[in-house]
Amino acid sequence: MTKRRISANYVFPVTGEPIKNGYVDFDENGKILEIGALEGETESTEFYNGILCPGFTNAHCHIELSHLKDKFQEKTGMSGFINQINALRDSAPKEERIALIQEQFDRMYAEGVTAMADISNCDESFDAKCRTKMYTRTFLEVFGAFPEEAEGVISDVKALEAKARSLGLDAAPTPHSPYTMSPKLLQLSSAEGLKDGFVSYHNQESQEEEDLLISGTGALAENYRGRNMPTPPVTGKPALLYFIDNLKQVHPEPFTESILLIHNTATNEESIDAALETFKNVTWVTCPLSNIFIHDTLAPYGLMRKKGLRIAIGTDSLSSNHILSMAEEIKCLQQHHPEIPLTEILQWACLNGAIALGKGDIFGSFEVGKCPGAVLIDHIDFKNFALTPESKAQRIV
User: Fold this and answer.
1) Residue 20 and residue 13: Cα distance in Å, rounded?
2) Of 20, 81, 156, 315, most Cβ neighbours within 10 A?
3) Per-residue pLDDT at 204 exceeds 80
4) pTM as predicted
5) Is 104 among the domain residues?
């Protein structure tokens, strides 16, 4: 059996403390055989300057929006972002859109992404997903604010699901958010996702969303009324409680399925407590660069860490980000929250997303028997265990 030994200044297993001058042995199929600390280099050891970590899990991406890179104005809030997506979504020919999807897949894989939770509204990413070595789970996101549209929307998305599955892709419908769908469509699409065991949901992405659900006011409410679009019922409660109430209409407790709550920039203790009481397998996905791009804010990481939440990291899309790079997301987190240890951030970036996708037994950490891949991150500030502006991520295995 062929063995490949990869080593670096520090190896981050993710499930344990960093190993100085650590190594990871892989077989020819990328399965981990052994992990340890070097006692002396041999000619067969591949030694790299930097840190070695498992392949990343991008826990939230819209790769089919890759043609929108650098086309959006920043810091417009959700209302302004919606106006831009409506105006620009089809601003490139289909052939160009598909080529850019493939380009981003290749780049992300080369920079260490081993698994990805991707949002799709059409089939344009399916061919690239079939070709990539990256594992993907596709969340077929639906919209429809008018209740009379709900049955037709579900019929269409189930046809899209059948196409994805015929290609061997893991895919199922999922709801988008409280403000883009009627309660009927929210319930029907959630039921489809729960049936498959996975739901991804844009949660409390902005204060505008909270204002809309709590009081029916704010920029998002005005945007929808200005376009003669229905808005969700005013509940007087945080938006996440509205989502939970709708799920309970279509599924008995307990909820053991994997629930991915995306963004969470406006979440609070009441919402978190309600989710933890309801969901037994919930992951809170943060997209730092996207949240700054649209809202100029970040999720309340202090509260989320205090509550012991399982946090994962996503890049969102090139409509709300300048680059799809897990390393850049880590830099952003360290810049704004230097108190969060790199060991913890790498758990967010590697293992927690893999667990959310039901692949924690294969990806996300250096453990014997797993096949997570290996990523070198260079130009490290070893004194502070921090990435620097020059740091890049590169797939080694």
Assistant:
1) 11
2) 315
3) yes
4) 0.98
5) yes
